[in-house]
Amino acid sequence: MLDFANLSHSIAFISGGVVITLKFAFFSLLCGLPLGFFLALGKLSNLWVIKKLAAIYTSVFRGTPLLVQLGLVYYGSPSLTGYSITAFEAGIITFSLNSAAYSSEIIRAGIMAIDPGQWDAAKVLGISWLQTWQKVILPQAIRNILPALVNEMVDLLKETALVSVIGEMDLFRRAQVVAAERFSYFEPVIIAASLYFIMVMMISFLAKKLEKKFAYA
Known about the structure:
Elements: H1 11-15, H2 17-43, H3 48-63, H4 66-81, H5 87-112, H6 117-124, H7 129-159, H8 171-182, H9 186-215
Helix pairs in contact: 2-3, 2-5, 2-8, 3-5, 4-5, 5-7, 6-7, 7-9, 8-9
């Protein structure tokens, strides 16, 4: 029988992991999206070497488990660099690099969905290459890729739970700590799952508002 009454003093402790989870998701997106954008440009490049390197990067990070990548960065990088990396740094680096690989495909597809004739039209009107990107291509690309990027954000938020295996006190790790102390696993994890669900629903709600804004822009 479920008993949440005994966890009343632990709910605040578990909830404190929300901030850490959001930090991982926010900073990983902050670093991963720009890298993904440049990777997408690399895949669309006319230079064979750049296109190939971008494709190899994406294949490696999409073709190996995220948990393995996290382990390599956290446990392997100190032996290579001599720097004792923290769990937070390892998580941000791993999630950023991994997210960049997935988001690059999303961004590339969004750019390729735009009619190439718009480049020619911009040239005829005397619009510079940079202005064409800023005023014509990017707004349409963002509108095309927004739903897929939101899915990537949601996936990234949930994947941050993996940092619990390297000792970071995120939301899931705190639920595990409470479960070990109380000898009751189900209730703490239900609380953590509920908090993850609330965060995902908030992201989805904000994304819908943003989609409507771009739809009428």
